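Supplementary Methods. Inverse-folding protocol.

Structures were first reduced to a discrete structure-token string of length 238. This string, shown here, constituted the complete conditioning input.
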């Protein structure tokens, strides 16, 4: 569990949110947990999300309905409502998500249910492979339809790039490496662990961040090379 390093104003909002949840659910509220960038050095005020894991004893829709007004009152708070049993039985299905939570979190109220959850790295490998294969298939299909439309290719490339880097963080976990948040550090660590073309990844990141401009012809080449990089990652992961 990490220390929270955010502004006093945001912390007041978080505590108010937790207090309101206690008013709504009383003893049925098990935990209010803040996780993600808000509990890491990567938090950027007004840009980063505030993600909450809300653990209840019961998450039937009639029960969740009680929090409808509260969720609408805090539109910038992304709240995930689960039961403890659901979490324990889902770590094999969603290892990436629960590893991400466990890596950076802080208990605002109640029980620390993330501390002792067990995640099998075999399940982590399966999910990484599954998501990479889906990404690869969708990019191939999109290229077949829109390879002459650089605007569509550009949007798909940049969106997929973010998703793949998130998967890459967890592939690094499989290698026993650290799992940095910053994209530049993920690329560095990934290129050290696997025989990938670091220049391709860095150029896509620079273009995505609008640090450089790439011509239409180069954009298409980057798209093709990125797909090839995913194929290499999958082959090594498998």
């Amino acid at each position: 569990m990490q220390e929270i390093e955010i502004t006093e104003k945001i912390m007041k909002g978080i505590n108010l949110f937790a207090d309101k949840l206690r008013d709504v659910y009383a003893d049925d509220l098990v935990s209010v947990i803040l996780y993600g960038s808000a509990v890491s050095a990567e938090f950027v005020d007004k840009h980063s999300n505030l993600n909450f894991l809300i653990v209840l004893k019961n998450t039937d829709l009639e029960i969740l309905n009680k929090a409808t007004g509260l969720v609408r009152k805090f539109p910038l708070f992304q709240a995930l409502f689960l039961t403890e049993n659901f979490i324990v039985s889902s770590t094999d299905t969603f290892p990436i998500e629960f590893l991400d939570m466990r890596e950076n979190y802080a208990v605002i109220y109640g029980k620390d249910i993330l501390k002792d959850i067990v995640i099998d790295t075999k399940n982590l490998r399966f999910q990484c492979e599954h998501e990479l294969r889906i990404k690869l298939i969708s990019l191939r299909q999109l290229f077949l339809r829109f390879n002459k439309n650089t605007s569509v290719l550009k949007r798909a490339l940049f969106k997929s790039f973010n998703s793949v880097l998130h998967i890459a963080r967890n592939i690094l976990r499989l290698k026993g490496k650290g799992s940095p948040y910053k994209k530049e550090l993920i690329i560095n660590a990934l290129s050290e662990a696997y025989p990938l073309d670091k220049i391709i990844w860095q150029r896509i990141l620079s273009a995505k961040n609008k640090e450089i401009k790439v011509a239409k012809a180069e954009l298409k080449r980057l798209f093709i090379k990125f797909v090839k990089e995913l194929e290499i990652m999958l082959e090594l992961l498998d």
